[in-house]
Amino acid sequence: MTGDEFGLRHGEYSALITARGAAVRELRHRERDLIVPFPAGGPNPDFRGVVVAPWPNRIPDGRYTFDGVDYLVPVNEPGRQCALHGFTPELDWKMEFRTESAVELSCAIEPVPGYPFALSITARYRLDGGGLRTRITASNVGERAAPYGVCPHPYLLAGPAPLDEWTLEVPARTFLEVTPDRLLPVTTRPVDGHEYDFRTARVIGATQIDHAFTDIVFDGGGQAHVVLRDPGGAGVGLAWDRSCAWLQVHTADKQPPIPDRLGLAVEPMTCPPDAFNTGTDLVRLEPGASHDATWRIFAD
Predict the structure, then answer these.
(1) What span, in angstroms and rounded, lies between the C-alpha atoms of 210 and 153?
(2) Of 11, 70, 127, 262, most Cβ neighbours within 10 A?
(3) How far apart, in whole angstroms, are the C-alpha atoms of residue 166 and residue 118?
(4) Residue 1 has what pLDDT?
């Protein structure tokens, strides 16, 4: 259930943020949806718009090792036997302050046997002329170092045409190959000559993607941008900072009768799938330390 929600407005933008999962339930520009929304008062399908922490993506079998100690977190993706998307999507976040165009929510990750670490996390949402800006701050309020990662989980909407007709631009030179059954990491591969090379904007077509990308090109201001465009001229973009060296992209392919390819999931991640085991770009939060990540969704 989505629980309480908070409406934001600035100029031609409006947004609805839910207490459950600190999710962006709606984001509109001139009454055009920029993300795939979900109904109020019910379950949130496919983690739409949530804040994902303290790990993005999957931990196989829920097992990982940190500082030489083995841990087991609950498996919540039984079909692939993985622990998916951390704890925060199921938490009820507390409103700390609110204005017409901004809201700050917070949650606490309490120590449990599979994750015996204590984190305080805040999500700051703000609408301005540049779209919806998000800043996530995680602070270690415990007495031991904690493994940590974070990402957003919006499904972007370029416009009214089907996803297959949208053009996509992704500034990444490498993607993470995964197993076809459980989507577990295998190795990184260059996008050169591959169907996942979207460094130059082109039509998505029938390409199916559920992969992490890296070797991302950031501009002189330290920002990277994914841009989606509808053939009618409408578009949407997502920008993020260097705290997220990885990007998950998913064409939301589903089996009937579930609606197929409703939007494009675009998820800047601080670390890749299974980073709790590989250690790749894993954030190590020492006691008293904090970590910030920012991103922005905008009409293009």
Answers:
(1) 13
(2) 127
(3) 42
(4) 56
Q: How far apart are CA 265 and CA 64, in angstroms?
A: 26
Q: In Å, how far are 62, 87, 245 from 84, measured between CA atoms?
A: 8, 9, 19
Q: Based on the number of CB atoms within 10 Å of its own CB, is 97 exposed (0-12), middle (13-18) or buried (19 or more)?
A: exposed
The two structure tokens encoding residue 174: 């490498």
pLDDT band (50, 70, 90) for residue 276: very high
- In angstroms, the CA 112 to CA 209 distance is 34
Average pLDDT over residues 234-248: 98
Q: Identify the residue whose tokens are 């949407």.
A: 236
Q: Which residues contact 257 (CB under 8 A, 6 or more apart)?
A: none
Nearest to 273 by CA among 54, 56, 53, 49: 56
Tokens representing residue 166 in the block: 């949208």
Q: Decide if 63 contacts 71 (C-beta within 8 A).
A: yes
Spatial separation of the C-alpha atoms in residues 93 and 137, rounded to whole Å: 14
Place of tokens 């990885």: 246
Residues near 166 by Cβ (< 8 Å), separated by ≥ 6? 158, 159, 203, 204, 228, 229, 230, 231, 264
C-alpha span between 246 and 151 (Å, rounded): 9
φ, ψ of residue 244 to 5 degrees: the values are -110, 100
Token pair belonging to 56: 């993005």
pTM reported for the whole predicted model: 0.97
